[in-house]
Amino acid sequence: MGGIYIWGTGCGAGELSALLPERVEISGFVDSFPMADTFMDKPVLLPEQLKAAEPELVLVSARASAAILSKCQELGIERDVLLFTKNSVRLEDMNISYSAAQKLLGADTVAALIPSYHAVREPMKKYNSPLSARDYENDYVRIKTLEAVCRRLDSVPGAAAELGVYKGSFARCINALMPERKLYLFDTFEGFESSEAAREKRLGNLSEGVEAAHKNTSLNKVMSLMPNPASVRPMPGYFPESLNGLEDVFAFVSLDADLEESTLAGLEYFVPRMAEGGCIFLHDYDSHEFAGVRNAVERYEAQHGKFHALPLCDVNGTLVICF
Ligand SMILES: C[S@@+](CC[C@H](N)C(=O)[O-])C[C@H]1O[C@@H](n2cnc3c(N)ncnc32)[C@H](O)[C@@H]1O
């Protein structure tokens, strides 16, 4: 009993574990929607199992901080054992004390973990939306922009697609906002291809933790999250081989492959097939982490000319490319 837990089993959890000193042993992970029983060789608990584990410290790597806080309150988990590391969508710091974390991790590590910036959360005009507060918490600016863009795509013909689906959280929003539109989901559903990942690791554009975290998904779990599965066309496998000669026209594409060659392959395939009025959301364009994404854009633009595009000030710097 006791010990340190990380809440979340996504790439944020992978990044966070990489920031911890080697002497710090993680007892396990916590996730409300676990993909598997273990993550990074440690057990994954449901929130309901956490209280009995008597955690000394829970490092919250997931962004759904409000939902996690209220779940912990419901479960009777003391607030001062929680350290929120990603509450970047609200003005106030949700942490009420750093003392448990400082005792177990040291002051320098805690300083590296706590959020260093806060984006203002201004309410937009209210529309009826199929999305939930949890969807917005993942990245308020990106999801609200998606919602606004989808309202303008009604008259644009073509399918939607995502290259880089992972656990399906953004794909779920696309599918909810455009229930009737065909949605192709391209992913290996087993993480990055190993030789491409090895190259990006050599270049310092990918960490071991982020690579390991991306193996933690499955097509079945992703499909179970889709609100309108009849519109979804899963395309498992390594892109572009997974296209298998597919020809279609696209109104909306989310490119979120993280790595340079896959992003470039995505641009080469989708850009010539975009409908007029359509758009591509290219995630991580302004990310400090995945430098390969911007390299891919620069290589594509050097050959084909500059995009008409608008960079977003969302969590990872999405570029919205307009056609
Ligand atoms: C950052 S994740 C996607 C996150 C997702 N869009 C979301 O918002 O939750 C990147 C994903 O891209 C996938 N990926 C990268 N390159 C790929 C390729 N060439 N073919 C198939 N999947 C690829 C990885 O397997 C990984 O799941």
Structural commentary:
The protein is an alpha/beta fold. It has two domains: 4-113, Rossmann fold; 133-322, Vaccinia Virus protein VP39 (Rossmann fold, 3-Layer(aba) Sandwich). It has helices at residues 11-19, 47-50, 65-75, 99-105, 107-113, 133-138, 140-152, 169-177, 194-202, 208-213, 219-225, 260-270, 291-304; strands spanning 4-7, 26-30, 38-39, 42-45, 57-60, 82-84, 159-163, 183-187, 232-236, 250-255, 274-282, 308-311, 319-322. The strands form two sheets. It has a seven-stranded mixed sheet with strand order 9-8-7-10-11-13-12, with helices on both faces. Strand 10, helix 12 (260-270) and strand 11 (274-282) form a beta-alpha-beta unit. Helix 4 crosses helix 5 and helix 12 runs parallel beside helix 13. The longest helix is centred in the C-terminal third of the chain and has 14 residues, at 291-304. The protein is globular, with a radius of gyration of 20 Å. It binds S-adenosylmethionine.
Task: Note the topology.
Elements: E1 4-7, H1 11-19, E2 26-30, E3 38-39, E4 42-45, H2 47-50, E5 57-60, H3 65-75, E6 82-84, H4 99-105, H5 107-113, H6 133-138, H7 140-152, E7 159-163, H8 169-177, E8 183-187, H9 194-202, H10 208-213, H11 219-225, E9 232-236, E10 250-255, H12 260-270, E11 274-282, H13 291-304, E12 308-311, E13 319-322
Parallel strand pairs: 1-2, 1-5, 2-4, 5-6, 7-8, 7-10, 8-9, 10-11
Antiparallel strand pairs: 3-4, 11-13, 12-13
This protein binds S-adenosylmethionine.
Residues 162, 164-167, 169-170, 186-188, 191-193, 214, 238-239, 256-259, 262 line the site of S-adenosylmethionine (SAM).
